[in-house]
Amino acid sequence: MPRYEQLADDMEAAVRRGVFAAGERVPSVRRASVQHGVSIKTVVHAYALLESRGVIESRPQSGFFVKARPVQRDGPDSREDLVARAAQAARGTKPRRAGAAKVPMGSVPNAVPAPVDVSRLVLSTLRSIVAQDAVPLGSPYPDPALFPWRRINQYANAIARRHASWNLIDDLPPGNPELIRQIARRYAENGADVDPEEIVITVGATEAINLSLQAVAKPGDTVAVESPTYYAMLHAIERLGMRAIEVSTHPDTGIDLDALERVLARKKVAACMVMPNFQNPLGFRMPEAHMKRLVALAEAHDLPVIENDVYQELYFGPTRPSSLKQFDTRGLVLHCASFSKSLSASYRIGWALPGRYRAQVEKLKFLNTLTTPSVPQVALADYLRHDGYDRHLRRLRRFYRQQARLMRAMIERFFPAGTRTSDPQGGYVLWVELPPRVDSMRLYRAALAQGITIGPGYMFSMRNDFHHYIRLNYSYPWTEQTEAALKTLGELAAKMA
Amino acid sequence: MPRYEQLADDMEAAVRRGVFAAGERVPSVRRASVQHGVSIKTVVHAYALLESRGVIESRPQSGFFVKARPVQRDGPDSREDLVARAAQAARGTKPRRAGAAKVPMGSVPNAVPAPVDVSRLVLSTLRSIVAQDAVPLGSPYPDPALFPWRRINQYANAIARRHASWNLIDDLPPGNPELIRQIARRYAENGADVDPEEIVITVGATEAINLSLQAVAKPGDTVAVESPTYYAMLHAIERLGMRAIEVSTHPDTGIDLDALERVLARKKVAACMVMPNFQNPLGFRMPEAHMKRLVALAEAHDLPVIENDVYQELYFGPTRPSSLKQFDTRGLVLHCASFSKSLSASYRIGWALPGRYRAQVEKLKFLNTLTTPSVPQVALADYLRHDGYDRHLRRLRRFYRQQARLMRAMIERFFPAGTRTSDPQGGYVLWVELPPRVDSMRLYRAALAQGITIGPGYMFSMRNDFHHYIRLNYSYPWTEQTEAALKTLGELAAKMA
């Protein structure tokens, strides 16, 4: 790619990201040449290209400016119209096929531990979402527009003004004491008895999971995971040079405890990683009886269990789900969670409740990233203390539940016979089983060419069990574009089936 | 400790941290009892204790309020007075003893690789600084009050307002493109040719160093480090279950290249970790000829070199120092740096230039913490683009250089005969060799009892070579308290000698 084209791409990306706002002046040709270390000619070329793309415009005697663009996201009114229309369309669809009502099948246990390398696929999928500016059905993240970012930003700004300079040393691991207290209070209010002293604040749940795994297992060890599993679990295993053993997982009740018991009887397993609430991608809520049995199994085998509970607040039922942690009497459960799915993704604040492994996790946190940035910690603590988190969550849950129904109905309407969908009990992702002849990577590439992303099943397992499954994100408000994208996906799948 | 006292301690810490500002109302007894899950009686007890400590006051009919306290930090005028007085006092001191002018001795190479566990000592030292609110001579961090936090906060706030909700996916590794560009531009302006494509943004230099080490070595491998070395290097080795081999390091020129060559000839070494510019704790600036020879040695042995260059901007001489990276033609140098020592510590923004290991480092970043928070990245990019970073740095360098002189003079004045100090060429720490009979851990404990912290030599090596050395931080503006603390330290050391 010629240098000028690269520069133009970079600048266009910067404009899209809002580094230069609409109407703002971009650096002069001379300045840009110095800034980017390229010749004047290269900048002139790049700017001409950006003009022809409609990104910037030249104004005589004043330079180049970012062109105003029509707002792409629908306003609240038209969005509601659309949702109403889509819901009506969904209701008008033919009665549910028997097959469509069924949930995707559970998987077969994999008896052979395998070293892991799924991260490349995941990272390139995520990148394509950004690069193509595509309909983000493949995104693992919730629509941040639904979060109370304005309030949180206000708290952050007030703190920054009040505290001025922040001393790094004030928030050494385990983290900001006030945030820790607020997190413990929330658990308490929800009937879970959590000792604030146990909490360690981390950079998102990602770090919490990584540190937890490192605290209980070492390179070369075997770790039991669900199948399909959330790929962050596989990443943690990959990062530490461990081996994963996949255990059959039921779409309604979670990891198959008989299968897990057989694995434990046969193999030395250093840890087990599960997501009992609204697992990504399956969306189940593990029944309490299963939770208790899993904890009992862990105790019988002295097996540390890493519980990823990032969706704990996003339940669709009338009550907040339990967690493995609540049934753990021997400190074997390392409970990991975050605010990224329910309050603020970009702040990257998570935590671990590492049970008897607390000291190791805290020390590893210190070694891994020293501290978690302070202002985001205090801003979230202030929000939790003074603001309407519960009100926000009620709204979010209602919205996700409605979106889940809508997307299931749309899939039933547009997708080929033989398609089956999960019935999520919380969270914001849907797991879709396509006819076996549809390869999810082929579908992924075909969809991407049309500006649509999906999460191919390959990301969720090291086996080939889920080659015809995809994960879809329903957190983004329904638009005509979403509907058109699902229609296109359905047509592409039908052609491949 | 009884529950009410613990609660009082926690609340006092919260007040000190500014969670409750002076004059602000603290939660009512009833509310606090619910919040902290303790009885009304416990809260009443705790509040009474806080009243007697002078932290809060009760106002009839209205509850408890945080008491206004006299501002503890001196205003700019009195501070200047103090510095002037201290400088004068220093000039009045007896002429330098021959011994005092000498720099501390280099160490003996350690031929036996040892597994590492220094982090516990370091973490507890850091904690004691917070808990005791002591004179922070033992702190590894620069005084944040000297940073342009007001400007940076303004940028952060403007971004938060402009962008509102931030999509996590926008700043996937390698990181925010604009920040990457600004970092590359700075290198370019300083004559270092850096490809922006090589940069990976991390959570501080800590993460950059961790990921770099993980990219080039595996558990059980041996890694060569300086002796004394900055303990973050030892932490990285400890975190990954590797072994460290300490190489004699000269206080003026850095790692002993002959000694390193002998180690390489004898042992399989997976990587070498050094800090060529203003090493913490020694403060030397490695001569360019040494840098070139070190890179040549690395190339001859195909040895990855992790270069910690966090003090690159804090030079006292007329020119910015070179870095190993500039002499590296084969991509063997993994250069790590951050803004934490020169612009904003609490933002936790660092980066790596990982040479030929870039793909691995980027992937490990993704696995380790997913992304680095966005707003801090963009705020620093905006600051670099629009603000007076160079002006700020010039001021900071001048100030640190003056402080270094002042502290050396004070030590000469107050410390026992046989004390020798380093002559830092940059940065903000001083390395002090005490008479051999002074044990730095004993001194550390005795000093802490007097409200003074120091960095005991044990933190910088797994050997016993530095038991009579301490590291002192001179980034904090000179006050009477600093002077009194140094005097006390000198007296304690004299007693032990």
UniProtKB/TrEMBL annotation, chains A, B:
Gene Ontology terms, MF aspect: DNA binding; DNA-binding transcription factor activity; pyridoxal phosphate binding; transaminase activity
Occurrences of domain HTH gntR-type (ranges): 1-69
SUPFAM superfamilies assigned: PLP-dependent transferases, Winged helix' DNA-binding domain
Keyword Chloroplast: no
Keyword terms: Aminotransferase, DNA-binding, Pyridoxal phosphate, Transcription, Transcription regulation, Transferase
InterPro entries: Aminotransferase_I/II_large, HTH_trans_reg/aminotransferase, PyrdxlP-dep_Trfase, PyrdxlP-dep_Trfase_major, PyrdxlP-dep_Trfase_small, Tscrpt_reg_HTH_GntR, WH-like_DNA-bd_sf, WH_DNA-bd_sf
PANTHER family per the UniProt record, alphabetical: HTH-TYPE TRANSCRIPTIONAL REGULATORY PROTEIN GABR (PTHR46577), TRANSCRIPTIONAL REGULATORY PROTEIN (PTHR46577:SF2)
Protein family membership: In the C-terminal section; belongs to the class-I pyridoxal-phosphate-dependent aminotransferase family.
Protein name (Swiss-Prot/TrEMBL): PLP-dependent aminotransferase family protein
Species per Swiss-Prot/TrEMBL record: Paraburkholderia tagetis
